[in-house]
Specification:
- The protein is an alpha/beta fold and 243 residues long.
- The chain folds into 2 domains: 41 residues; 187 residues, Vaccinia Virus protein VP39 (Rossmann fold), CATH 3.40.50.
- Helix content is 40%, strand content 19%.
- A 7-stranded mixed beta sheet has the order 3-2-1-4-5-7-6.
- The longest helix has 11 residues.
């Protein structure tokens, strides 16, 4: 327990669920510095002061992942031709919730629920959502490895549901190999469509690389119907549904 507290003394990790920190310590074999390095790779690197203090759409310009996205074009390509959804459940949402008005321009959703491990971001999102009248919106802070809570959120969302999983695979796999597959199977049981994205370039955008992820693509093709597969703004986007 003391090591969890040691890790959480750093501001960027202070509001992470203990289960997330504990898992990082397990992977790092109890090394606090290595646990922080691992968490910083997937959480801390995104939590700059401007992001932590952000209260509106301007946050999207400073968050490492979101600032590369053209959300209007991304959502247009995702929703075009898919039919109407009543809710979006955004797993590992980060600051995506601040783009909710772009979602509304491209869909007819009535509900947006985001799930994020960083308590600071969740607090900022929920404060922002108080000013959003057009849709029911809320963010929840918990660990995606808690599959029971994931199921409860999905089952409570308005049907039909579309689930966003933007750039989650690497983070999940680094914490527990093959967990992303387990999560995808559970999510698919409780929604109508899923959007998975994979980065095609480094965080800073200086290094591009081909996203093969053959094991993931083979898994998706074997277990789901792939509806769309395209690249945009440094991400590969795969939209699919259960068979």
């Amino acid at each position: 327990m003391n090591k969890i507290l040691d890790v959480k003394r750093k501001r960027e990790f202070s509001c992470l669920p203990d289960s997330v920190v504990s898992r990082a310590l397990e992977v790092s074999r109890g090394d606090v510095k290595e646990a922080r390095r691992l968490l910083r790779k997937y959480f801390g690197v995104f939590l700059t002061n401007r992001v932590l203090k952000g209260k509106d759409e301007g946050v999207l310009e400073y968050h490492f992942s979101s600032k590369k996205r053209d959300y209007g074009e991304l959502y247009s390509k995702i929703f075009e031709g898919l039919g109407d959804f009543n809710s979006v459940v955004d797993l590992g949402c980060g600051v995506n919730g601040f783009s909710i008005r772009e979602i509304l321009k491209n869909s007819k959703i009535k509900q947006y629920w985001g799930v994020e491990a960083s308590g600071q971001i969740v607090d900022s999102l929920n404060e922002f959502f108080k000013g959003v009248r057009e849709v029911e919106a809320e963010a929840f802070c918990f660990d995606l490895f808690d599959l029971d809570r994931v199921r409860r959120v999905l089952r409570g969302a308005k049907i039909p549901r579309i689930v966003f999983m933007f750039q989650l695979v690497d983070a999940l796999e680094n914490m527990k190999r093959n967990f992303s597959r387990e999560l995808l199977i559970e999510v698919a049981k409780n929604c109508e469509s899923i959007v998975l994205t994979l980065s095609t370039e480094s965080i800073g955008g200086k290094k591009k690389f081909v996203v093969k992820r053959k094991w993931m693509v083979d898994f998706l093709r074997a277990n789901f119907n792939i509806l769309k597969d395209f690249e945009i703004s440094g991400e590969r986007v795969i939209v699919f549904e259960g068979k």
